[in-house]
Amino acid sequence: MLKDGAVWALGAMSGTSLDGVDAAMLHTDGLRILDFGTSGYRAYSEGERAVLRAALGRWPGAGLEPALEVIQSAHVELLSQFPGAQLVGFHGQTLAHEPRGRGTHQLGDGAALAQALGKPVVWDFRSADVSLGGEGAPLAPFFHWACARHIGATKPLCFLNLGGVGNLTWVDPRAETPEAEGALLAFDTGPANAPINDLVAERLGLDCDLDGRLARKGRVEDGALELFLDEGFFRKMPPKSLDRDDFSLMLDLVRELSDADAAATMTGMAAAAVMQGMEHCPKPPARVLVTGGGRKNPVMMRMLAAGLDCPVEPVEKAGLDGDMLEAQAFAYLAVRVARGLPTSAPGTTGVAAPVGGGQISRPESVQG
Length: 368
Ligand SMILES: Nc1ncnc2c1ncn2[C@@H]1O[C@H](COP(=O)(O)OP(=O)(O)OP(=O)(O)O)[C@@H](O)[C@H]1O
Ligand SMILES: CC(=O)N[C@H]1[C@@H]2OC[C@@H](O2)[C@@H](O)[C@@H]1O[C@H](C)C(=O)O
Hints:
With 368 residues, this protein is an alpha/beta fold. The chain has two domains: 7-137 and 326-366, 2-Layer Sandwich (Nucleotidyltransferase, domain 5); 152-318, Nucleotidyltransferase, domain 5. It contains twelve helices and twelve strands. The chain has helices spanning 46-55, 65-79, 110-117, 127-131, 141-150, 193-204, 222-229, 250-253, 259-278, 298-307, 325-338, 346-349; strands at 7-14, 20-28, 33-43, 87-98, 103-107, 121-123, 157-162, 165-171, 184-191, 288-291, 312-314, 359-361. Strands 1, 2, 3, 4, 5, 6 and 12 form a seven-stranded mixed sheet that branches. The chain has a five-stranded mixed sheet with strand order 9-8-7-10-11, sandwiched between helices. The longest helix is centred in the C-terminal third of the chain and has 20 residues, at 259-278. Bound molecules: adenosine-5'-triphosphate (ATP) and the ligand CC(=O)N[C@H]1[C@@H]2OC[C@@H](O2)[C@@H](O)[C@@H]1O[C@H](C)C(=O)O. The site of adenosine-5'-triphosphate (ATP) has 22 residues, from α6. Belongs to the anhydro-N-acetylmuramic acid kinase family. One of its GO terms (biological process) is 1,6-anhydro-N-acetyl-beta-muramic acid catabolic process.
């Protein structure tokens, strides 16, 4: 276990949108952010993405070797470019997530990665939380607390991650630790970019609706939006989390619409899901800081700004890096695991008591 001192940790995240691996260095003692370091990105090739896509929904077992090979080799390639890292936080690729059912599955072999990099690797961050009754997600909220303190926030604020799935964290920066009662409330809001990506891939062979160019030309179809908001998920109190494809029915709701109207409606659904989620905040936030790829979609940002009564801004407005926040989060969580500190709490995953997820693998030469 690490002593109290700060370390340079390297976090790596392969998100639900399957675009690639993000990696970022963070100097932290597991409580405070002392400094941000360099970062990098390794995109998946078309072929690699197809292999990963084919593995979505799968649980550990035979047949995953090609997908595992993609994850391991992409991570080794990217993470070897950070020789200064003292510890690695390796999220892996979520293939399936059913916290009240079969569990949660992040593909990746932390022991093999530790061996390949010659560094200790913290991995399997979500299982312990799930086995103790938590949702296993979202896990970035403890880092959001550290970010809120780092930027000098004095009033409650929200972090909104618009990735493949959306997740919202309400944080009270006056709390002394992230696990303190009332410090955090976090949950997945609903689908964000994943269904939009799926729509434009299916209809137009595109990766995403870049800059909302398609949605901008369309109009939100209210009937489809209402049917979407009828989903039981939105009435559920937090904590709650989602699998990437839990809302694949969305594609059916827009099937009859033109490409532009379908894109506008799906963008509207992602924004409306966030607005529903905001109603769960214990107190109105002073601002909503948006991270993840969705913050680059001006149509989505405009819809959010129109629907919420506080400023909605990309995290860059507060000096943070919205492309790397999740990778930094897993660097932060890795240090917390190594120091024996919790990484989730009742307010973030619904787990009964604060819990430290993640296991540590060390390369054989430095074992013990
Ligand atoms: N300029 C842009 N215009 C529109 N959408 C964009 C733009 N840039 C990124 N995106 C969307 O953001 C997605 C990537 O977001 P991000 O990297 O936050 O997802 P992720 O980390 O894989 O997901 P998650 O947080 O759910 O694990 C892209 O797949 C795309 O849909
Ligand atoms: C099971 C899983 O991998 N969930 C992801 C996903 O992507 C966004 C949202 O759904 C969030 O719950 C989580 O990721 C972020 C990094 C988190 O744990 O905070």
